[in-house]
Amino acid sequence: MQVNVHAVNFNVDQKLIGFVQARLDKLEKYYDKVVCSDVFFKLDNTSAKTNKIAEIKVNVPGDEFIVKKQCKTFEEAVELAADSMERLLVKRKQKVRASA
Questions:
Q1: What does the CA dihedral 20, 25, 26, 27 come to, rounded to 10 degrees?
Q2: Which InterPro entries does the protein's record reference (predicted)?
Q3: By residue range, what is the domain housing residue 37?
């Protein structure tokens, strides 16, 4: 699956890109018709420790899913967002199978 990583106003480390690619490749186990995914990293401009935002957008035929999580680290945010995305993709797969 093609994963595009976008960082808003900063540069992303290669280790983080590798982590994101490995984590999102696991999504294909839950729904195999994923076309591509975009990951957006943003820094929230607050004094709180949970200022890192990861937003995952997954394109499937006929639809797209967006999950946004805010945590202390980008890795934690990606992990939580990917877990939520797994649940969405499982629901989508069941819905498609039920209507077929």
A1: 100
A2: RHF-like, RHF/RaiA
A3: 2-99
CB atoms within 10 A of CB 75: 16
pLDDT tens digits, one per residue of 80-97: 999 999 999 999 999 988
Q: How many domains does the chain have?
A: 1
pLDDT in tens, 22-65: 999 999 998 888 999 999 999 988 888 889 999 999 999 989 99
Looking at residue 50, its amino acid is: T
Read off φ and ψ for residue 11, nearest 5 degrees. Answer: -100, 145
- CATH number, domain of 37, equals 3.30.160.100
Between CA 74 and CA 94 the distance in angstroms is 30
Tally of CB atoms within 10 A around 63: 9
